[in-house]
User: Fold these one by one.
Assistant:
Number 1:
Amino acid sequence: MKITAIDACVLTVPTSKQMALEFPHHKLVVAEIATDEGIRGLGYSLMFGGGGAESVLVYLETRLKPLLIGEDPLAVERLWEKMYRGDRGVRRVGIAGMAISALDIGLWDIAGKAAKLPLYKLWGAVTDRVACYGSGGWSKYSDKDLLAEAERYAGMGCGYYKMKIHDPDPLANRKRVEMVKKALGPGVRMMVDVNQKLDVISNQRQAAVLEDLDLVWYEEPVIADDIAACAEVAKSIKIPVATGENNYTRYEFRDLIERKAARYLMPDVCRANGFSETLKIAHLAAAHGIAVSPHVVYEISIQISGAISNGFLVELMDWMPPDLFEVLPECKDGHIRIPDRPGHGMVLHKNAVSKYRSAGG
Ligand SMILES: [Mg+2]
């Protein structure tokens, strides 16, 4: 089999109502990979909030696409290495990592379709159903919006809910978390997300006033570049730390693990150089008894979670309009069933490209 063409573009997709207060849209860099045997693979990277999508598209088009045309798409590992090592002076993180991610996801989609298997089965399945948590709780929500969202996820059977703690006053955050916890009752456990906004001392102060609330994890305490600071926080607070959505390769995750910077790792398949690298990260975490809870894009992350024994929860953030994908995996009783369709199982809605394609993208 040979790759004959790659059609790539940027889709600008509006978010659902409450999230739009913080992010009016997200962008997807989509790459559709065509082969001479008629099998097509869909790859994409989600740019949360849209930042950098145009640059990712240019890097993909000008530097990566020429490396793949004419190649056998089933040699995924070889092609991953070819893309990863293509530019010696460019680190495959951020823009370049997101471009490789989109193509790696598309190559695996072809591999699954050629094998007539969903990817989690191709990789050796542990389960066809993964537990998820409701995620949101953005800082611009009113208390009413926050409670409505938390209760909506609880109504889907989610046993976990995660909210942001972005107020500069630690006690104001405590009050909001307590309010949600009280409304949800003992059947739902909670997590909080700092989104890299604090330094070490501020995290210690913040975590100290949340300690008695039985939180599952305390997420992304410091800027993701500073693994040493994350390790210092993890060592000095009583709530387990989760991080990794803005770390990109097996090497960064190895550092997080070796420095004991987190008890939960959260690679994002669209940022961490695709399914190939995320599987390696997950297996590395398994060797250290660390759980993996992939960051957003749950509709494709579930393939990873279904194939690893140290998977914990997937992040359900249901921001997508119904006409982006043909079928979106649904949450029932707090779980998402992994689609049994070959590949990753996601197909763009027939009108998605014409409707959401950015001008000039
Ligand atoms: Mg987060």
Note: Residues 39 and 110 are 6 Å apart (CA to CA).
Number 2:
Amino acid sequence: MASPLTAIERHLVEQLLSPAASAQHSSGDVSHAELRPFVSEISRISRSYTGHEVGETLAQPVGSLLAAEAYALYYLPINAAKVAHLAPLVQSPKRCLKVLDFGSGPGTAPLALLATIPNNLEVVCVERSAPMRAVAERLLKSWKGSTSLSSLTLTPSLPQDGELFDVIIAANSLAELGQKDADVLLKRLLALLGPQGFLIMLEPGQPKHTRRLMEIRDTLIEDLTPLFPCTRSTLCPMLASSETDWCHGSLTWSQPPLSRQLDSLLGFNKHRIKYSAFVFQRGAELKPGVRVIVPAERTRRGIEITVCGEDFYGPVRIKKGQRSDDTRALEKSAVFDRVELSEPPQAELSQSVVTTSSEL
Ligand SMILES: C[S@@+](CC[C@H](N)C(=O)[O-])C[C@H]1O[C@@H](n2cnc3c(N)ncnc32)[C@H](O)[C@@H]1O
């Protein structure tokens, strides 16, 4: 079976490119002539993102159908990969989940959820750009997978308070808001999140956007339980202890072929994708263990791994001569892996510690 991202790329090609390009995509590269108009739009959109000052409102860079399609062809699979990575955190006994996607663009996050989680979805896409809404409608309504889209609403503004959602997503959309609008939005999203509801916030993997998201995280912990990356319910120690550190990870994905071809035409490289994200759940238990922030580094005194957990932030050391099968999970863990230790983390781990690790 095709991976979720390969299936999503195939769907984009079938819906947005010509039948000839779709046939070419099945066996190799798509013709440059077909991609050329999209490539120049993607370059223009990219320049407007990189030139945008964090905390200022971004002037709408996607104002035409061509721009919305170009965004979908290039950015949708990249952002969907991040949502798909986090989607297993959304665990609910409900057969159908009500999903609100703020700044949905071409339907990136709902498509990623449809391709990865077992629940059917009732989706509300909030999107100010009419061409983005048109592309989202086309892509979501034509999606055929094992889980289904029970209903789809596309609207330029948030629903009234009173309606409650099981999953709320804001992916790469807070980045486009000025600070005042972002503050108002967060209050509204909190009011719309139902009991046991999940809030997924993703931002571009850049230091300033990430630091801003870390500040937002600190304002949400009174109401919501962090599920990712934090395994702590208190203020972010990285934010408090450094002016520059930013809590981010990077995904290695099997980049689908059109994404690779567009990268090569654009001179970009999304072989690995940096991301910053926070996932919360209302009324949930905190996850046990610590999150790896800096993976294993050799020092004179042993192996050090920087971790963050409920009562601990900093390096833990496995002393020379104490490495064993029991410490291997911690030693081998990557950034954002969650590691459980058989005893509370401390700067120097004891000889008897046993570690186990998982991705989420
Ligand atoms: C960078 S795109 C992200 C699209 C999608 N979430 C993704 O991750 O690929 C941000 C989207 O947010 C939308 N947006 C920004 N401000 C908005 C607002 N105040 N109301 C509704 N949509 C907004 C923009 O039009 C744009 O389509």
Note: The chain has eleven helices and 13 strands.
